[in-house]
Amino acid sequence: MNDTSKLVIVVGSVREGRFGPTVAAWFAERAGAHGGFDVEVVDLADVELPLALPAAPPKLAGADYPRPPGMAALTTRLAAADAFVLVTPEYNHSYPASLKAAIDWHFDQWTAKPVAFVSYGGAAGGRHAVLHLENVLTELHAVTVQSGLAFPQYYLNWADGQPTDPEAAGTAKALLDQLAWWAGALRRARAESPYPA
């Protein structure tokens, strides 16, 4: 089996003037250099994400779940992924509604796959958002990776598209090492037998 895992990096914020694409681009460069991943960045600003959901949840509806046409590419990318990195800001001690909508429109696409977090915000660096996301994704039977990357006061600590923290690259590598391990292990497990969700 190919040791390279398909990594989808999701830009979670759709707010005007958002910083997420800058963080995602920097992290995608690190992930590409890591060597363990085929990297794709998905920007939720490019996706149709209605807040109103169908009556039956996606877990029960399965392949017949009626998603809007503008979500088809996102669904395909999530389904093909072996691992995810969610790039999220912190809004009012939680994560953006756009990210919650993208999660809630799917179920099987997250199941038995590892998810890591790269967050940014004020003094907490988005850590409150990550705590909430860990709880939500556990319900979807995803595996959240322990190592994370947080950027407190990002508006003061980035320059020219790069974090000024000299430890950021090393922390990113530790996250990617764990994510690669989980991605390979869970990909092999899914290939051997269906996950009993």
Outline the fold blueprint:
Blueprint: E1 5-11, H1 20-34, E2 37-43, H2 58-61, H3 72-80, E3 83-89, H4 97-104, E4 114-121, H5 127-139, E5 143-144, E6 149-152, E7 158-159, E8 162-163, H6 168-192
Parallel strand pairs: 1-2, 1-3, 3-4, 4-5, 4-6
Antiparallel strand pairs: 7-8
Poorly predicted segments: none
Rounded radius of gyration (Å):
16 Å
| Structural class by helix and strand composition | alpha/beta
Largest sheet: 6 strands, parallel
Strand content: 15-25%
Summarize the structure.
The chain has six helices and eight strands; from the N terminus they run E-H-E-H-H-E-H-E-H-E-E-E-E-H. By secondary structure, it is an alpha/beta fold.
Structure, explained:
The protein has 197 residues and is of the alpha/beta class. Helices cover 38% and strands 20% of the residues. Strand 4 (114-121), helix 5 (127-139) and strand 5 (143-144) form a beta-alpha-beta unit. It contains 6 helices and 8 strands.
What characteristics describe this protein?
197 residues; alpha/beta; two-stranded antiparallel ribbon; single chain; 6 helices
